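Hello,

Our lab assistant flagged a job as stuck in the queue for most of the afternoon. It eventually completed. Since we weren't sure the result was trustworthy after the delay, we are filing this so someone can double-check. Below is the sequence as submitted and the structure that was eventually returned. Let us know if re-running is recommended.
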Amino acid sequence: MPRLDPRLNAYREDLAAESLRGKVQAPRYVAGVKKQVIRAAVAVRRRPVPTAGLDTEALFGEVVTVYDEANGWAWVQLDRDGYVGYVPANALTPELRPATHKVSALGTFLYPAPDIKTAPIMHLSINAPLAVAEHVDRFYRLAGGGFVIDRHASDKSRCARDFVEIAERLIGTPYLWGGRTRVGIDCSGLVQVSMEAAGLRAPRDTDMQQAQLGVALPITPGLEGLERGDLVFWPGHVGIMCDAFMMVHANAHHMAVTVEPLATAAQRIARSGTEISAIKRLPALSALEK
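-- returned structure --
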């Protein structure tokens, strides 16, 4: 059988997701159980070791399918983008609360009472799903407890009009491999988070994004003809064009989300022996334009 991508398909030597029966060989197959994230942001790791680097993050309110739990770890697949990995089992709850809203600000706080002077319970990041029970003055009370400022949240169906503007608002965010929040973010995370805020789906990693997003444009010697929202790819890196010349990207050179001329970034990256691998144009900047 052809080998499936283990980042997006839940299988190990000892078990696999029931949905993969007939596609992968495994001693047993598990249907899995749905659970929900109850922490602000949870590192998703390739191995059940706290010192292992994070591949991505699962946000508060996101739903995952749990295929196995052992030694305090849950082996899960994220509903958002299908990513597979290990998270702390105590970061999940079996009590599912369907989202009605989402965090639309870059970040907000979950308070124990409808009072901004109370010590917040946790920080919530943009796109975190929220199950709102009622509107109380300036706050939304969540079904699972806690209060969020109403101006920092919106109905889950509402989309930002321009995903590039979301990326630009994240300028200055520290670079973090696997990060998906304003506390820390990586290059493909910036693309995914920004597009999600605009109602556009994007896979998690740069190779997936290059393969699945948009229509390929010619890579000209002078890098002419680019537009706002075009994605520029290198092996293992991606940036978002703000206009025909400037690019916003989370990068390890500056260790932050920065804006700089595409030509400057391309020349610097070329000195390390890596050239642009693709330029892709998306059909719309937001779901509202579809």
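-- support follow-up --
The delay was a queue issue, not a problem with the job. The result is valid. The chain is about 10% helix and 35% strand. Residues 163-289 form a domain with the endopeptidase fold (from Nostoc punctiforme) fold (CATH 3.90.1720.10).
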